[in-house]
Design goal:
oxidoreductase, flavoprotein, YdjA-like, NAD, FMN
C-alpha cells in the first residue's frame, strides 16, 4: 500500500471481529510505533499488548474509574452492574494496545515533545494496522487520564496513558471519507 493512500484511506474502525490476530502482525505494528520521531532519541513510549483475559487489566481500570465517580447512593448490586458494564469495554476487540508516555528527565527535552512523540508512535501504529488489512481505533477520553486508570497500569509519577488502540479484523465497512479543509486555507507561506 502506498503511504499517501494509507494516510488518506485509513479510518477508525470501531467494530472488529473477535478472531485472533497473529502475533507477528502485532509485533510489526509495535515496531512501527518505535520508529516515530522523538527529540534526543528518548523513545518515551511504553506499550501493553492485551489479549484474551489479559484485556481484564484495561477492564479493571474502566471499572475502577466508574466506581470512583459513581453516585454514593448506588446499592452494591447497582455498583456491580456498573462496574461489569465498564469492564466489558476492554473486550470490544481481540487485541488492545495501551500506549503511555514516559517523559525524559533530560532538561533539554520539553515534556510536550515527549507527548508528541508518543502520539506520533500511535499514528505509525494505526497506519501500519491499516496497511496490514486490520481495523483499528484510537480510544481515549476522560477515563484514560484518570488516576485509577494510571494506578491499574502501574504508571510512575510523570507517566501518562495517551490512549488505547483497539485492533482486529474489520467487522464493518469503513466510514466515508470526512471532508478536510484544503491545506491552502490553513497555511501561510513565509519567504522573507
Amino acid at each position: 500500500m502506498e503511504l499517501k493512500e494509507a494516510i488518506r484511506n485509513r479510518r477508525s474502525i470501531g467494530k472488529v471481529k473477535q478472531d485472533p490476530v497473529d502475533k507477528a502482525l502485532i509485533e510489526e505494528i509495535l515496531e512501527a510505533g518505535t520508529w516515530a520521531p522523538n527529540h534526543c532519541h528518548t523513545e518515551p513510549w511504553r506499550f501493553w499488548v492485551m489479549t484474551g483475559e489479559g484485556r481484564g487489566l484495561l477492564g479493571k481500570g474502566y471499572a475502577e474509574v466508574a466506581a470512583s465517580e459513581a453516585d454514593p447512593a448506588l446499592t452494591e448490586e447497582e455498583l456491580a452492574v456498573l462496574k461489569g458494564a465498564q469492564m466489558k469495554k476492554a473486550f470490544r476487540a481481540p487485541v488492545v494496545i495501551a500506549v503511555a508516555v514516559t517523559p525524559s528527565a533530560q532538561a533539554v527535552v520539553p515534556e510536550i515533545e515527549e507527548y508528541a512523540a508518543a502520539h506520533a508512535a500511535v499514528q505509525n501504529m494505526l497506519l501500519t494496522a491499516h496497511s496490514l488489512g486490520l481495523g483499528a481505533i484510537w480510544r481515549t477520553g476522560a477515563p484514560t487520564y484518570h488516576a485509577k486508570m494510571r494506578e491499574a497500569f502501574g504508571l510512575g509519577a510523570k507517566e501518562e496513558l495517551v490512549g488505547f488502540i483497539y485492533l482486529g479484523y474489520p467487522d464493518m465497512a469503513p466510514p466515508p471519507k470526512a471532508a478536510r479543509t484544503p491545506f491552502e486555507q490553513k497555511t501561510l507561506w513565509v519567504s522573507e
